[in-house]
Amino acid sequence: MRQSVAAGAVLVMLGVSGCSFTSEQSTTTEYAPSDGIVKDLGPVLLRNVLIVGNQGESEGRLVGTVFNTTDQPVDLSIRAGGAETIITVEGDGEFRFEEEAGDDTTVGGLMTTPPGSLVDVDFGVDGEDATFEVPVLDGTLEEYREFVPGGFTPRPVEPEVNEEAAEGE
């Protein structure tokens, strides 16, 4: 009898204790802890890839890193906003957009894309093509300010009116 009561108590405790035999553990869910995309395309790994630009400007700059997992160089084509660029990533190498200068790091035709939006960007390598939604950011975050084409000018902050200032008018 005691064993039956103990077994019943254990079953009741398991049922009401929030035991998660059937629930997915949130700590096992993989996600990209970055501002940009994390995608794989054939032998190429795209890590923290995003576009930095100013609203109203026609160009944005790519930021992030592309890794080549093969021992041979690969050409990665990138198309967005009507513009295309091709970069070469050396075998077992990486290409960091932040460290490169020139047309292969800029994306044209983004004039109507405000920061905070996602832009469809076509990537192609070794006959494989994919379209990924890439986030567009501006220089609000300090770590991206140096990459904004033409420089970043913060919006003017409206001064806060306090009660003392209002009374003096």
Automatic annotation (TrEMBL):
Keyword flag Signal: yes
Signal peptide segment: 1-22
Span list, region Disordered: 149-169
Acidic residues bias (residue ranges): 160-169
Keywords tagged on the record: Signal
Protein name listed in UniProt: DNA modification methylase
